[in-house]
Amino acid sequence: MGFSSSGQIIVTGWHSTSNVQIVGPILPANVWTHVTTTYSTTNALRLYINGTYYNSSSAFKYVASGTVNILTLGNPLQAVPFNGTGGCKSQSIVPNVYDGSIDEFGVYSRELSSYDICALANP
């Protein structure tokens, strides 16, 4: 997950030798926004903004890269170079464009339902 040069949120997934991505909206500045992404082989990659479904990719089977996967939160991607793209295999995500706070972060062992996501976004 990252941002494009125009400020749109981008969610990515990896399939074999290619990147699967969803390009989302430009999020408002100085406003808390709940962003959730889910993945399953049935429902593909999905993006939710403030508990509401935004968009999804076409279905794909996740294929591991065979290397360590790095998850970076609020840190410039340039710290972990990958083929000159700043540590991200998506050419669409621009390093160093996020300047804000992260209040909560979670990783789940299952795909969250839209009900789960709505409950998390609206406690």
UniProtKB/TrEMBL annotation:
Pfam families per the UniProt record, alphabetical: Laminin_G_3
Domain of life per record: Eukaryota
Organism for this UniProt entry: Adineta steineri
Record-linked Gene3D superfamilies: 2.60.120.200
Name of the featured protein: LamG-like jellyroll fold domain-containing protein
